[in-house]
């Protein structure tokens, strides 16, 4: 029996009704980086992904394609597996809900819940989205359509998909029976859901108002797992799909050794659009089955375009195959994991992608590697000197920075904060580049022929740079599949088949006498900004069908937008004296928390340069579900607004922010601006 620590991570299982785009890919790349990290800590890792293959939408897609459901699915799953191979996804198992073992286990789960009284038969009448495979109440819809008499005749789900009225016999899961237990579990396990705002949202919107029982079967579609003994019903997709996380480990099968070894899961990753199913229905289902709950469920944000969420209906989709073919896998994986803030949405733009490649990869990292290899060749005949320290005034500081950043890297990556972990890695890269400028190896080289101290200092500098680069390469392994190996090769270091262990990583681990390559090649060539921005922008326009739908949708909104435009044009202009009445100051955010009595408000405490802290309420909770990301940021505030009370709290001003296409971003000022500075 292995004494290794185990680590089990899952992605949601993907619905194969269409081609996966860059936003879908993010979740799996995030899970892969996390799995790779824990393997490099010498842990026993099980990484699960797969596909959710039942439901009415799949049946319709197969009919439209003129094939059977399984023939349609086999082709789609091949495409998904090919994509995961292209993206370097190192999963241990790919589960399909059409797998025989899974279907049998789902039937056993359903029967157990039925036998113990957690499932009952009833009648369902309400609104259903085929695209989402989800039921909605009227209050949960993003938009409601009514006839001239005010009667509801349809609507749109939060996803934007149309809903339809259905009435059918159904089996229901008694979710209401477990509502109090779930609230207590949340309270006793505050880190169960990350970010915390996702849990608060579910409490306020679904649990505290009264958790409704969940319809768990359909009769209008026969593409699914039949209910044992009542085959007219098929088990609704969410009970079927959620069970995959345990059936993949052999739950209720002849061999459940993997379940005993790896359950409960350490981390379950889901997009925020399916958080409700994973932090309400899934915990209740597990509890009813007598199983432990996952240790942590992370509901991450979306990778969105400037005009909103990536969507084929909007025609604003980017596919990972296109980016990878042109820029390489490492650049794409790095961008996804560096640009997505934990818990919040990330905004993809061609300019940002090209900037990340040029500045982070080509300039910062690439130049550090190229300069170091070139100097070792020029000054030490290509041989890395033995590591010593204290030979220059800057050695000790570099040593401390590398040690500190390695610690921060481990803290962040162990909590799946990849953007912060990569910032820690770049802390080493930036410090090492600065170290070159501080120590001036070219000056030390001129003196080294006659000055032994200068020679010792030069050797120390080169050994430090090689050691820092080795540490950087090691830390990049979970994110990049090729660059760490290339960096080791240019430094003349052997790269183990299973990668370089992250256990005990330090700056002084380059063997003395290692010979670097004679001439290092850039591993990240610099991109032509104008050309590559234009190329990436052209990829978005390839989805002409989506563009057409977007144009039609825009036409529907034309009259409304015209009205708004005319309204704006008729707004009164103001004189300078009017504007001069507004006092805008710089203020630093020192605390941020949700207002308990409000679903929209965040309460900020700010340092505005005065002796007294200022409190401002802002209705931006939707865009900042984890407001801690704004701590320490300097923002612009309107300081001379009359104080007013909202939700029982006093607000003393307004934080300025920008809004476009429904996305609100707080206007963050440069750090050099001191709190209390006037803004004109």
Automatic annotation (TrEMBL):
Record-level GO BP terms: methionyl-tRNA aminoacylation
Keywords: Aminoacyl-tRNA synthetase, ATP-binding, Cytoplasm, Ligase, Nucleotide-binding, Protein biosynthesis, RNA-binding, tRNA-binding
Domain TRNA-binding: 578-680
Superkingdom of this protein's organism: Bacteria
Pfam family, one: tRNA_bind
Catalytic reactions of this protein: tRNA(Met) + L-methionine + ATP = L-methionyl-tRNA(Met) + AMP + diphosphate
Gene Ontology MF terms: ATP binding; methionine-tRNA ligase activity; tRNA binding
Keyword Zinc on entry: no
Compartments, as annotated in UniProt: Cytoplasm
InterPro entries: Anticodon_Met, Met-tRNA-synth_bsu_C, Met-tRNA_synth, Met-tRNA_synth_2, Methionyl/Leucyl_tRNA_Synth, MetRS_core, NA-bd_OB-fold, Rossmann-like_a/b/a_fold
Primary location recorded for the protein, binned into one broad class: cytoplasm
Motif ('KMSKS' region): 309-313
Any one annotated GO CC term: cytoplasm
Enzyme class: ligase
EC assignment: 6.1.1.10
Coiled coil: none
Keyword Ligase applies: yes
Similarity comment: Belongs to the class-I aminoacyl-tRNA synthetase family. MetG type 2B subfamily.
Biological role: Is required not only for elongation of protein synthesis but also for the initiation of all mRNA translation through initiator tRNA(fMet) aminoacylation.
PANTHER family from the UniProt entry: METHIONINE--TRNA LIGASE, MITOCHONDRIAL (PTHR43326:SF1), METHIONYL-TRNA SYNTHETASE (PTHR43326)
Assembly notes: Homodimer.
Name of this protein: Methionine--tRNA ligase
Source organism of the structure: Fructobacillus tropaeoli
Gene that this polypeptide is encoded by: metG
């Amino acid at each position: 029996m292995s004494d290794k620590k185990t680590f089990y991570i899952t992605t949601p299982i993907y619905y194969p009704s269409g081609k996966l785009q860059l936003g879908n890919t993010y979740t799996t790349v995030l899970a892969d980086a996390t799995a790779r990290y824990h393997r490099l800590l010498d842990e026993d890792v099980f990484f699960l992904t797969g596909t959710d293959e039942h439901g009415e939408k799949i049946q319709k897609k197969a009919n439209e394609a003129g094939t059977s459901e399984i023939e349609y699915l086999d082709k789609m799953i091949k495409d998904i597996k090919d994509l995961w191979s292209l993206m370097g996804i190192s999963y241990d198992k790919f589960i399909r809900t059409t797998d025989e073992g899974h279907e049998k286990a789902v039937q056993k789960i359903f029967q157990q819940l039925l036998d113990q009284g957690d499932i009952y038969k009833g009648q369902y009448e309400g609104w259903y989205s085929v695209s989402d495979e989800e039921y909605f109440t009227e209050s949960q819809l993003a938009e409601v359509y009514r006839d001239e008499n005010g009667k509801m005749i349809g609507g749109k789900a939060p996803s934007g998909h149309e809903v339809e009225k259905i009435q059918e016999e159904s089996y229901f899961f008694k979710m209401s029976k477990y509502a109090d237990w779930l609230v207590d579990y949340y309270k006793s396990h505050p880190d169960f859901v990350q970010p915390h705002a996702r849990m608060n949202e579910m409490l306020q919107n679904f649990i505290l108002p009264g958790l409704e029982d969940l319809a768990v079967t359909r009769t209008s579609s026969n593409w699914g797992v039949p209910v044992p003994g009542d085959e007219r019903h098929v088990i609704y997709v969410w009970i079927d799909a959620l069970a995959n996380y345990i059936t993949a480990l052999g739950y209720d099968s002849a061999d459940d050794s993997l379940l005993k070894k790896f359950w409960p899961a350490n981390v379950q990753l889901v997009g925020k659009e399916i958080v409700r199913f994973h932090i309400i229905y899934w915990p209740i289902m597990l509890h009813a089955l007598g199983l432990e709950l996952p240790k942590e469920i992370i509901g991450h944000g979306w990778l969105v375009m400037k005009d909103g969420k990536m969507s084929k209906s909007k025609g604003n989709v980017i596919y990972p195959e296109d980016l990878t073919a042109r820029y390489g896998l490492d650049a794409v994986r790095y961008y996804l994991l560096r640009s997505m803030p934990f818990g919040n949405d990330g905004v993809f733009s061609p300019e940002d992608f090209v900037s990340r490649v040029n500045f982070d990869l080509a300039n910062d990292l690439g130049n550090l590697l190229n300069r170091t290899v070139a100097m070792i060749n020029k000054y030490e005949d290509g041989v890395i000197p033995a590591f010593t320290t204290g030979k220059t005034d800057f050695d000790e500081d570099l040593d401390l920075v590398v040690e500190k950043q390695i610690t921060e890297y481990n803290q962040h990556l162990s909590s799946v904060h990849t953007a912060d972990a990569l910032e820690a890695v770049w802390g080493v890269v930036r410090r090492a580049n600065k170290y070159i400028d501080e120590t001036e190896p070219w000056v030390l080289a001129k003196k080294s022929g006659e000055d032994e101290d200068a020679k010792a200092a030069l050797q120390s500098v080169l050994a430090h740079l090689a050691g820092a680069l080795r540490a950087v390469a090691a830390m990049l392994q979970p994110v990049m599949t090729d660059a760490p190996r290339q960096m080791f090769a240019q430094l003349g270091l052997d790269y183990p088949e299973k990668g370089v262990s992250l256990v005990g990583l330090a700056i002084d681990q380059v063997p003395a006498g290692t010979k670097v390559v004679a001439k290092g090649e850039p591993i990240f060539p610099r991109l032509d900004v104008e050309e590559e921005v234009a190329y990436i922008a052209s990829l978005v326009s390839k989805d002409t069908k989506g563009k057409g739908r977007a144009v039609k949708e825009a036409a529907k909104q034309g009259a409304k937008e015209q009205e708004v435009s005319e309204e704006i044009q008729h707004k009164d202009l103001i004189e300078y004296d009017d504007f001069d009445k507004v006092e805008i100051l710089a203020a630093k955010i020192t605390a941020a928390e949700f207002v308990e009595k409000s679903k929209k408000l965040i309460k900020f405490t700010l340092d505005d340069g005065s002796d007294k802290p200022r409190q401002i309420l802002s209705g931006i909770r939707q865009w900042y579900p984890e407001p801690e990301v704004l701590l320490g940021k300097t923002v612009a505030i309107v300081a001379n607004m009359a104080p007013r009370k909202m939700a029982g709290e006093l607000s003393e001003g307004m934080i300025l922010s920008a809004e476009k296409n429904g996305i609100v971003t707080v206007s963050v000022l440069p750090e050099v601006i001191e709190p209390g500075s006037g803004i004109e």
